[in-house]
Amino acid sequence: MFLSSLFIYIFSFIFVWFGAGLIVSAVDKFSHRLKLSSFAFSFLVLGFLTSIPEIAVGINSLAEDRPEIFVGNLLGGIVVMFLLVIPLLAVLGKGIHLTDHLQGKNLLITLAVIAAPFLIVIDKKITNPEAILLMFFYLVTLYLVESKRGFIEKIEEVVEGFQHIGIFKEISKLLIGVVIVFISSHFIVEKTVYFSEVFSISQFLISLTLLSIGTNVPELSIAIKSVFSGKKQVAFGDYIGSASANILLLGVFSLIHNGEVLTGNRFLIPFLFVILGLGLFYIFSQSKNLLSRKEGFVLLSIYVLFLLYELVRI
């Protein structure tokens, strides 16, 4: 059982890698056909597509009446995104240049919105009004991105573009990539939980750390694929979009739960780590609108400290 699970685990990562390659290629070509920035299209579309594993985990945890799992996974995903995946992209890609979508005041507002869920759950619960507030926060980040390039105004161009055979080709490639990522991510999440049970790790810690890494495998794969293809803005847009999508999903799942979502008492420390990480991210970005390789290493070190702290508390 252990060896077969390990075999499935390894091959699932390989398939996610392949599927992520199809997605990155399709998104880049599709956004160019619509005369959209890769960042804007990735934020709005790819951010949701790579959140499919989080959606699956949320649905399953609701079905089993274990809301603490989707809360830990979605908040853990934000930690992973800003302290592991984005810094990893900066390290591998020799820095990330911020686009005009996220500079100055827009970046500060976006980072504040992304940190807000951690502040909301410090009292160990999410109420229905707070869930609605989280969904509103997502609309704020959507507005900040859409207002720059008018993505929503281009819906007619999208419809017209469907008539072009090239668009159908890229859409097919995109859908194939999504299906591969979805199926592979299902096995990755499943086996991540299995291995954590084998090594006797608590369910909440699984969700906050291991499971959040497992459900962000598509983003990790896209980071590496984007560096090799020289399309880092596709990856960066996806990460901001994915982190924002986590906020929306947290609000939606909390409302579906139909009542207060009670959480564990371990969110204060993750909140402090997130505030530290996002604060440094903002400070670093003010230097030539660039997150350098050295600054990426600094953020990665914070993530390592976060993991060590959580592991010590097992």
UniProtKB/TrEMBL annotation:
GO CC field: plasma membrane
Compartments where found: Membrane
Coiled coil: none
A single GO BP: intracellular calcium ion homeostasis
Transmembrane segments: 6-27, 39-63, 69-92, 104-122, 128-145, 171-189, 201-224, 236-255, 267-284, 296-312
Membrane-related topology note: Multi-pass membrane protein
Alphabetical list of Pfam families matching this protein: Na_Ca_ex
GO molecular function, one term: calcium, potassium:sodium antiporter activity
Keyword vocabulary terms for this entry: Membrane, Transmembrane, Transmembrane helix
Domain Sodium/calcium exchanger membrane region positions: 5-144, 174-309
Name of the protein: Sodium/calcium exchanger membrane region domain-containing protein
Species annotation: Candidatus Woykebacteria bacterium GWB1_45_5
Taxon lineage: Bacteria, Candidatus Woykeibacteriota
